[in-house]
Amino acid sequence: MNQTTSQHHAIPVIIDCDPGIDDALALLLAAGSSEIGLRAITTVAGNRPVQTTSHNARKILDLAGLHEVPVYAGAQRPLYGSEARCNLVHGEDGLGGVQLPEQRPIAGEHAANALVRLLQDAEAGSIELVAIGPLSNLAMAELLAPGILRRARRLLVMGGALRVPGNITPTAEFNFYADPLAADIVMRSGAQIVLFPLDVTHQAIMSADWIASFAGLGTRCGTAAAAMLKAYAELDPLLHDACPVAYLLQPRLFGEEACELQVDWRPGATEGYALARFFHKRRGFAPNVQAATTVDNHALLALVKQKIDTLS
Ligand code: BDR
Ligand code: CA
After folding, report:
1. What is the pLDDT of residue 282?
2. Which architecture does CATH list for 3-308?
3. pLDDT by residue (tens digit) across 132-169?
4. What is the per-residue DSSP string for 73-125?
5. 240 classed as catalytic
6. Residue ranges of the Inosine/uridine-preferring nucleoside hydrolase domain (predicted)?
7. Distance of alpha carbon 258 from alpha carbon 219, whole angstroms
8. Quick one: pLDDT band at residue 7, thresholds 50, 70, 90?
9. 242 alpha carbon – ligand 2 mean position (Å)
């Protein structure tokens, strides 16, 4: 199949992200998958401030040779609260100190406006919207144009801790903690949602050998991936953000459960807590989320490696 034909059949995907090293790996996985047609990247304040995550997204796309995919910078802070809640798990620069060139200017439109426009212009139910950072941009799009998220085919969201402890507070996972109100708005949007909480990403464990094997690929992308992952794995050796992209390629790697889910957005000890109810047999059970709760980690690691191996 030639490039034009394969792009024509590719799944149209937008990725909202906050690179972040595991975000960077998710972008490389998407870039290396001919099944995926990346329409746009939107960025948000999360792991690092939005200026940094926007630069990083552009660097990774350029590294992967995706010079035509636009990057729209978005929310600088959560819907509620005056400052972004960043972390240093991915280093000061968000990419573990790995130097990468950046060759192009940022797109002028705000990410939330771009999401509204792209979802409006596309055929309803065609776009897969992958969200692997705080959900501020998606919630802003929903506030700007109520019902817009339901135009996506699905939202594939990394966030939340359902039956396991959080990674920021005892109850909250980072992406939900960083903008709990946005997370609740998105969960209640009525869109088709597949959630990848810590319950499943804690099973997506990178081994030191697997990380080192990227250096052996002898490619620009492999060398950069090995260096970034080595820095990241010292603090968080988990492939959180690659999970939703891998799901687009091979959904059967994951086990899913339906649940009713809401997010505690009230400031206080439990903000960002994802309250999930799994009462399958209860009358009136009205799930709003499909939660991935298991993954075949061996197959996941093989898939990620195989796709990144196709990049130069
Ligand atoms: C999430 O938080 C971030 O640090 C990662 O990029 C991932 O999206 C995991 O809790
Ligand atoms: Ca992320």
Report:
1. 82
2. Alpha-Beta Complex (3.90)
3. 999 999 999 999 999 999 999 999 999 999 999 999 99
4. E--SS-SSSSS----STT-TTSSTT------SPPPSS-HHHHHHHHHHHSPTT
5. yes
6. 13-300
7. 41
8. low
9. 9
